[in-house]
Design a protein that fits this description.
The structure is a single chain. By secondary structure, the protein is of the alpha+beta class. The chain has one domain (about 10-110): PRC-barrel domain (SH3 type barrels, Roll). The chain contains three helices and six strands; from the N terminus they run H-E-E-E-E-E-E-H-H. It has helices at about 10-15, 80-85, 105-110; strands at about 15-20, 25-35, 40-50, 55-60, 65-70, 75. A six-stranded mixed β-sheet has the order 4-3-2-1-6-5. A hairpin with a 5-residue loop joins strand 1 and strand 2 (about 25-35).
């Protein structure tokens, strides 16, 4: 089954649930990081853990690691909760202007994803 519309506005991606391959809800997409010059979607910022938004952890996940599941109305990531818990993370204060220059290689390497940059 394919979505009715192939494109989605970034503000509608925010808040979308994320599941593992077994169908367990892991968290939600807090935001999307887009590289200004190339226009590439670098990361989905996944939040999970905490209670009522307090104590949540924020993990940049390479966008191409996610796949959309029409029936769930959310994204699937091929990771367990334990893998995400040990993944690179960012502080909540960094959500609105994070410079990932030092961490970018580590994030893509951790997930075993080829980077989008040359």
């Amino acid at each position: 089954m394919t979505p009715h519309h192939p494109l989605i506005a970034a503000d509608r991606v925010n808040g979308t649930d994320v599941y593992n391959a077994s169908g367990d809800k892991l968290g939600k997409i807090e935001d999307v990081a887009i590289e200004k010059v190339s226009g590439e979607v670098a990361y989905a910022i996944l939040s999970f853990g905490g209670f009522l938004g307090v104590g949540s952890r924020f993990h940049p996940v390479p966008w191409k690691l996610l796949s959309y599941d029409v029936e769930k109305g959310g994204y699937i990531i091929p990771c367990s909760q334990a893998q995400l818990e040990s993944a690179p993370s960012i502080d909540e204060q960094e959500l609105s202007g994070w410079n990932d220059a030092a961490a970018r290689e580590d994030i893509y390497t951790y997930y075993g994803i080829s980077p989008y940059w040359p």
